[in-house]
Structure formats: structure tokens, C-alpha cells
Amino acid sequence: MYKPKISIIGAGYVGLPLALEFGKKFQTNSIEISKKRLLLLDNKIDPGGEIKLNEFNKSKFLKFSNSFKSISDSDFIIITIPTPINGVNKPDLRGLRVCIKQISRYIKKNSIIIFESTFFPGLTDEICIPLLKKYSKLNFGKDFYVGYSPERINPGDKKKLININKLVSASHPFALRKVYTLYKQIIKAKVIKVKTIKVAETAKVFENVQRDTNIALANELSMMTKKLNINTLDVINAASTKWNFVKYVPGLVGGHCISIDPYYLTYKSKMAGFDARIINLARKINNGIVNFLIKEIKKIINKKFNSKLKILILGLSYKENVADFRNSKAVEIAKKLKSKYSNITFCDPLMNNSVAKEYDLKLKDIKSIKKKYDLVLLLVPHKIIISKIMNNIEKYTNHNSVIMDIKSSLKLSNVAKRDIWML
Ligand SMILES: NC(=O)c1ccc[n+]([C@@H]2O[C@H](COP(=O)([O-])OP(=O)(O)OC[C@H]3O[C@@H](n4cnc5c(N)ncnc54)[C@H](O)[C@@H]3O)[C@@H](O)[C@H]2O)c1
């Protein structure tokens, strides 16, 4: 009977759902170094706030710990740790190097190490495998094998891991068969074998590059149409009636995937002597949207209000309906405005006070918002913000107020009597 033993390193947005799925069927160890996270997980609480208690209860063979010892019993070791960038937008691989060192001393013969973190092309072959060989002292291709299977989970999306097509790749045909069979046990969607690890690594980053570039194009259209005095959304809606037009709306690109992964690809590309111009430009445009917005906000304030106006900022996470504030452009905008205007109310029902403190923001509870505001800045349209505030916007604004809808998310009929600005 097929009963692999699995260790999953990192119990974050990627590692936790994976561990919960494998833990329904197989003996699974979820190894997490953050004590704070571990405490919550031991109490069946998802620190990301997305996974419910019953999912933990279904995962009968899953154990959480901070000890790497269980690896010595594992057939598969799956790495899901962060792959961030440093201050100059280059891959910061320090955590990955440490992790490989930590696991290497416990790897048993014939095991397969699978990387799920987002990598640049060649990272597995050129950095991870040599480090595994060095620290484990085992023979690669004889005593241990390597696989790469990028994660495509989309935070806030109802589509679960098991319903998302999964790419798998490996260092040897034998290992590829094993990696494929492993994921087939949990994935209901397609499991697709990819020819090489490099192809799988590049495919993953390119998926996010494509999204970044398309949003940059929509952002550029928005900046252009503002100058031309044309409504951006009207243009996008009209163009969307063509069969091959793909609808992207302007918006803020933050978080830890789309705003970071492209740098992994451009870094590697540059090392190979190729300047990835479109990818770099898309990054610049999407980063530049913060200053563009600040300028537009100032224009509106100078035209309609004085500096004592009352501003309401709604939504601070990096995307809607997600309690993740890493790299959030909404936080960046909020902090810039805070340094210029004194009368600002910040509200994000998904942000708790300890996180708000980290960002030096004082939050107001959504239920205690009572005043009428001159400027309402809807940065991130969480469902709860739409239902509690935006659907009753007349209560919180007066006839002279302006509403800035950054994600083009409002049904105009609900706010028809107000002055609306859309990105
Ligand atoms: N979050 C997403 O939506 C998403 C989607 C696809 C791919 N990815 C990629 O997956 C990887 C992980 O992302 P994430 O969002 O899950 O990160 P995360 O920060 O949510 O989780 C990573 C976890 O790993 C733990 N960790 C770090 N080093 C460790 C170590 N040496 N041993 C044990 N635990 C360790 C951290 O404490 C953290 O809890 C990144 O490469 C990311 O780009 C993320």
C-alpha cells in the first residue's frame, strides 16, 4: 500500500494548506520555525485567517513541530519557505541556504527533496543541489533526488489547492514518477509533468510576470486616459467586448508574489547578459502608481477642500479579502498621506491592532465609523467594507464629498449621487 512519509518545511500560506491535505492521508510533519505561528497551529488556528477548524480536524495524520528530526524518517521533504528580495530588488537566499543546511543532516537515503517556493531559473540545479550534496554528504542521483513543483495558490480565492493544476518536475525520470504519484494522491485537478526543473521554475515566475505586466498596461492606460479626459473603465469595458481582449483593470500591485517574483527572473536574466526591458518597465510602472495616486489625491484636495479636510482610508492589505499586509501599496499610500494630512481615519477590519502598530497606524473599528468624510479613499475593497460602508455611503459623506475607488470596484448606482474618481 502507498504510504509515503512526508515532511513539509514552513507552515505559511503555501506550506499549511499542503500539509493539511497530505495529513488527511499520510503521516505528515509540518516543520515551522516561528514559535508564534506554531502556538496558533497547535491550537488549530490558521495565522493567515483563511483555514477553518474543520480542515484541521480532517487532517488526522498531521503533526506540527519545530524539530527537523522527523526528516530522518521522511520519503519526501517539501520546502515552502519564503524567497524574498533584498533592498536592491535582488533575490535574498539567506533563509533558503540556512534551511538546506538544517534539513541536510537528517535526509535519509532514497528520499526526494521537493522545492515549492518560487525560484529563478536554475536556482534548484545551481544552488540547492550543490548545497544539499555539501551538507548531507550523500550522493545526488543515487542516495537522494530533487523535485520542483511551484505553488499556484491564490490567497483569498475560493479555489483550493487540490483544484489547481499542478506542475511537477524532477532531477531524474525515476524521481519524476515518484513526485507525480505523490501529488496525484491529493490534487484533483491535472498534475502536469514538465521536462526539466528549469522549465517549471521559469513557468512559475513567468505566470506572475504576465499578470504584473498586464496590470502595468492597465495602469498606464489609466494614467494616459486621465490626461486625455477619457474614462478608463469605459474604455476597458468597451474593449472587453472583443473576443480576444483580456480584461485587466488598473490597481495596486503589492504582496509577496506578483510584486517580487519578476525580480527573480530579471536578476537571472541580467546574469545571463539579457536586459528584460518589458518586465523591468512593468515593475517601474506598478511601483510608480503610488506617487501617481498621491499626486491625484493632492490635486483633488487642492481643488475642492482645504488641508483640514476629513479623510477616510478604507482597506490596507495587499489585496481584497486577504489579511496579509506584507508589501502592501495601500499601507505605503496611507503612510504617505499620514505624513501630510492630520485628519485621517484608517480602517481595515482584517488588520488587527498589533499589525497596525507595526505599521505605525491607528485603526478605527468599522462599527464605530460615524462621521461624514470629505474624501473617502477606497484602497482595498474588502467585501465587509463594501457591505458596511460603501453600500451606505451617503451616511458617511456629504454632497460635496469625493470617493476615490482605486480598484474600480463600486457599483456606480449605489454611489451615483457622489463625485467618484476611479483609477
Ligand atoms: N503566498 C502565496 O500566495 C504564494 C503563492 C505561490 C507561491 N508562493 C511562494 O511560496 C514560498 C512561501 O511563501 P509563503 O507565502 O507561504 O510564505 P510565508 O511567509 O507565509 O510562510 C513561510 C513559512 O516558513 C517558515 N520558515 C522560514 N524558514 C524556515 C525554516 N528554515 N524552517 C522551517 N520553517 C521556516 C516561516 O516562519 C513561515 O511561517 C515563497 O517562495 C513564495 O513566493 C507563495
How would you characterize the overall build of this protein?
Helix 4 packs parallel to helix 5 and helix 7 packs parallel to helix 10. The chain folds into 2 domains: 190 residues, NAD(P)-binding Rossmann-like Domain (Rossmann fold, 3-Layer(aba) Sandwich), CATH 3.40.50; 209 residues, NAD(P)-binding Rossmann-like Domain (Rossmann fold, 3-Layer(aba) Sandwich). Helix 5 links the parallel strand 5 and strand 6. The longest helix is centred in the middle third of the chain and has 32 residues. Strands 3-2-1-4-5-6-7-8 form an 8-stranded mixed beta sheet, with helices on both faces. It has a 5-stranded parallel beta sheet with strand order 10-9-11-12-13. By secondary structure, the protein is α/β, with parallel strands linked by helices. The protein has 14 helices and 13 strands. Helices cover 39% and strands 14% of the residues. The radius of gyration is 24 Å and the shape is globular. The mean pLDDT is 95. Bound molecules: nicotinamide-adenine-dinucleotide (NAD). The site of nicotinamide-adenine-dinucleotide has 27 residues, from helix 4.
